């Protein structure tokens, strides 16, 4: 194997790992920090909504890595010189995307219900908390927010 081919394979593997690391997942909890005293943690519940939470791992897995490697190997079989390098890089990216999608479709997604509670704090700031249960919380209740959890006051 010549040095160019070794470099191409190394670049292909690195590109597939980096592609997988670029994915991100949206946050399900919005917390607006307060800078006032302890009273700023007290407020009133404005709304409570049931939301669906997925407990699947959102990061890239083996599918993206294996797909990138296979795509790079297949792309490396095409052409020569600069065309070969471009085909290899395209194979890595395409393989990683396809492999990641296949893995996502085969994962067991466990969906659970959670409660999104919007609280208007005494200092006028709105804070949204997502928690697994609401116990005896109702809209209009006076509450205390501590450690991203809502307690009845």
UniProtKB/TrEMBL annotation:
Glycine zipper 2TM domain location: 62-103
Annotated signal sequence range: 1-26
Main location class: membrane
Keywords from the named record: Membrane, Signal
Location in the cell: Membrane
InterPro entries for the chain: Bact_OM_lipoprot/Surf_antigen, Gly_zipper_2TM_dom
Entry annotated with the keyword Chloroplast: no
Protein name per Swiss-Prot or TrEMBL: Glycine zipper 2TM domain-containing protein
Origin species: Undibacterium hunanense
């Amino acid at each position: 194997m010549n040095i160019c081919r070794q470099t191409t394979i190394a670049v292909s593997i690195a590109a597939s790992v980096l592609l997988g690391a670029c994915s991100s997942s949206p946050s399900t909890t919005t917390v607006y920090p307060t800078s006032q005293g302890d009273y700023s943690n007290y407020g009133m519940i404005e709304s409570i909504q049931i939301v669906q939470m997925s407990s699947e791992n959102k990061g890239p897995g083996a599918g993206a890595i294996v797909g990138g490697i296979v795509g790079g190997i297949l792309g490396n079989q095409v052409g020569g010189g600069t065309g070969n390098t471009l085909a290899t890089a395209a194979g890595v990216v395409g393989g990683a995307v396809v492999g990641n999608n296949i893995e996502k479709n085969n994962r067991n997604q466990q969906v659970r219900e959670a409660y999104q509670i919007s609280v208007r704090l005494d200092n006028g700031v709105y804070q949204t908390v997502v928690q697994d249960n609401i116990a005896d919380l109702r809209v209009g209740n006076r509450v205390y927010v501590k450690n991203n959890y809502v307690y009845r006051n």
